[in-house]
TrEMBL record, chains A, B:
Record's catalysed reaction(s): 5-phospho-alpha-D-ribose 1-diphosphate + nicotinate + ATP + H2O = nicotinate beta-D-ribonucleotide + ADP + phosphate + diphosphate
Span of domain Nicotinate phosphoribosyltransferase N-terminal: 8-131
Task performed by this protein: Catalyzes the first step in the biosynthesis of NAD from nicotinic acid, the ATP-dependent synthesis of beta-nicotinate D-ribonucleotide from nicotinate and 5-phospho-D-ribose 1-phosphate.
Keywords attached to this entry: Glycosyltransferase, Ligase, Phosphoprotein, Pyridine nucleotide biosynthesis, Transferase
Pathway(s) the chain acts in: Cofactor biosynthesis; NAD(+) biosynthesis; nicotinate D-ribonucleotide from nicotinate: step 1/1
GO annotation, cellular component aspect: cytosol
Name of the gene: pncB
Protein name, entry field: Nicotinate phosphoribosyltransferase
EC number(s) given by UniProt: 6.3.4.21
Amino acid sequence: MSRRDLTLLTDLYELTMMQGYYEQGQNETVIFDVFFRQNPCNNGYSVCAGLDQVIDYIKNLNFTYDDVDYLRSLGIFSEDFLHYLSGFHFSGDIYAIPEGTVIFPKEPLLKVVAPIMEAQLVETAILNIINHQSLIATKTSRIVFAANGDGIMEFGLRRAQGPDAGLYGARAAMIGGCVGTSNVLAGQLFDVPVMGTHAHSWIMSFKDEYSAFRAYAEMYPDNCTLLVDTYDTLKSGVPNAIRVFKEMKEEGVHFKKYGIRLDSGDLAYLSKEARKMLDTAGFSDATITASNDLDEYLLHDLKMQGAAINSWGVGTNLITSKDCPSFGGVYKLAAIQNEDGEFIPKIKISENTEKITNPGNKTIYRIYDKTTGKVKADLICFVGETYDTNEDLLLFDPIETWKKTKLPGGSYTMREILVPVFKNGECVYKSPSVKEIAAYCRQEKKTLWEETKRLFYPHRVYVDLSQKLYEVKKSLLDQISATN
Amino acid sequence: MSRRDLTLLTDLYELTMMQGYYEQGQNETVIFDVFFRQNPCNNGYSVCAGLDQVIDYIKNLNFTYDDVDYLRSLGIFSEDFLHYLSGFHFSGDIYAIPEGTVIFPKEPLLKVVAPIMEAQLVETAILNIINHQSLIATKTSRIVFAANGDGIMEFGLRRAQGPDAGLYGARAAMIGGCVGTSNVLAGQLFDVPVMGTHAHSWIMSFKDEYSAFRAYAEMYPDNCTLLVDTYDTLKSGVPNAIRVFKEMKEEGVHFKKYGIRLDSGDLAYLSKEARKMLDTAGFSDATITASNDLDEYLLHDLKMQGAAINSWGVGTNLITSKDCPSFGGVYKLAAIQNEDGEFIPKIKISENTEKITNPGNKTIYRIYDKTTGKVKADLICFVGETYDTNEDLLLFDPIETWKKTKLPGGSYTMREILVPVFKNGECVYKSPSVKEIAAYCRQEKKTLWEETKRLFYPHRVYVDLSQKLYEVKKSLLDQISATN
């Protein structure tokens, strides 16, 4: 609710572990990876977002006197440790995939390389920010895909999970492809288009619907969208809207953008009837906007049924990602540096093969088909592994290893997608504007095959491991099972 | 970073409507009601929360120069109106049901009585705040109910929908009945217990599990909960924990609170096995904490199967209210004051009878059975209607009006639950502390019948209308249908 530093926005155990490391004199450099295991809503890809807020968070990390006093009051921290905290700043490196990039499960979308005490502290807030914005950017992408070129407006502020969820949700929605938001604060802070017209209460506060429409049309000839469902959409709302459009035309007023908004009833039926009425009256350029509990599934169905809707306002289902309200990003230890400066890979095992982490200091290459420019696969490898795209590249599934593909040399291109964001505690990355990120995200989606963008049962993009990474992982697993 | 007022955290249409009213010279006093139509998760009741943040919001309403400049840049607002905004403050009245009260669908849980321009502006932020916190308080109540006396800890920050969702979600979770939160900032700001121990990364950063446990136990004898599932829960984790507990005991260390945490695998089976092992080793007072994708349904089932778990950490499903991530609070015009100072009731009709609003300037009485102290029903009536509890009270269902109950005089008590919060723009209400609200909420739930608290198909509490309100509503509906 306030733009306050978020240093204490962390789980208590980050601090108890930090003190543990402090007391042990243990502060080796480690690597933590942020990754997720499944795309939300069974989508074929995700869109990462939130990095700019992570940067702000890291830059502003700092325990104030009040913070230290509060921690002292808990009675579990030593004065030495509290003294250490009062001088705390982040001194490590962060690498991340830029916002708006399409991403896939299991690849590190953010990597923290820092002394363990620092790397541990930042876990919770980084996950909170990235999980939230990536969720909403991904959900929005689905809704935008279903709209097949129609504009989607983000209208969810009143149903968002608190002020930040509304504000940063609107930001993520713009990255995911919305044409605008109703959220004025988001417009101010992120320089994105704000949109909206009037509510039922506007109509109800006038003596009748016609007078309310007329007053609104006189005020807002540049963008006059009249809400037609307060009393009866087809018997009262649309006829009154047409009457006002006619009067204004006769009086020589030229609307820049005008039309009606439907907010209840069967949107397919009502929009088709309203379209006929508007066309017959000579207003074929009037837009029909719809709202009311929309999501990608209903939108997809309404389009299939030929709903005559040009513009969609989506609220609750977008801003909360209602059918899948969390993005399961996790933060896992991948390596610990030894005295020689070498990163020793670490692995977290699990009964569930899918949950076993990828060890070591890694990066990611995205591989494109040279002819089409479409994504072939992502390749996770150790930092420092090099590839010559003139040579054949053998990709194999890291679990079902018999699934192999050979890409002939010269047929593909590669691009490293993890980029440096912090180096030795200094930010070395300049975030693009939200509009630029949104434009980049549109381009990113063009690199996906249509089969991957499908709403239902999309084709999976492969995320493979380099031969070297695969072997290290396998040998760590063998070591552990030998010990048990 | 400084505390930011949320004045622009509103939908654009609130501002375009405001300007509309401004240009029309229309600023009569109106009444808007906040109410909801359905309890989240098909619960039998909801818990209202968020009022303290609404109070902050209203107190801090103020358009700064930057805000006005931004609005000017949109090119849709007149200089006169912008000048009016720069001097804006809230001058109206607000009534609300205090936080932590159990509430039911369709009753106004907050009522704004203010000039229409002011009342319209505050819609979005009020709904955002109340919807979020009431959702999480209600979801938490369900989870706490399923735990049947065990403590529930809020562990969801990393999966919350942004920083505020984590922070105010933790606040609402405490109101709903959690015993603590992992969220340190929530602990600092709301003076509530913070909890937590260590993560898998702690274990992995030591040469082996035993050393990690040992180091932790030495550091935190007051609250030593060891996470036992990093390698193998029953073969490695629990035996190593027992070894450390034994050693520490032999060394004369007395743990205040100690035990293990399970975070994967089958929690029913593992907890029962771990319980046996701990008991056999003489640690029958060691607690077993569980986490890992818990919600009220799984918790209910685990309890049914005799899981030996004393304490539960609940994350994603609580902090996002995963199966129902929005609380459908709406803000509807209920009355407009005429020149004589009389409130003329307004009604919003709908094809759907359930969606028709209750008109007029209303209040709510909660009716209790005098003998048991349990809630009999809520009664919505006009402000000023009086009741004598020595007389019989006839209640009837506002839709199926033949459903009637007569409460004999002397058998019931009544309490008005809407209280004044702002009068003429001045705050006249002092919010209790979160701990006080949580204690009050526990009392509130005791006034509900067990049948209403049930997780599945709970018994509905009736919300009835007074005879007078019913008649006014009916006559407004008749008028409207006569016009069509």
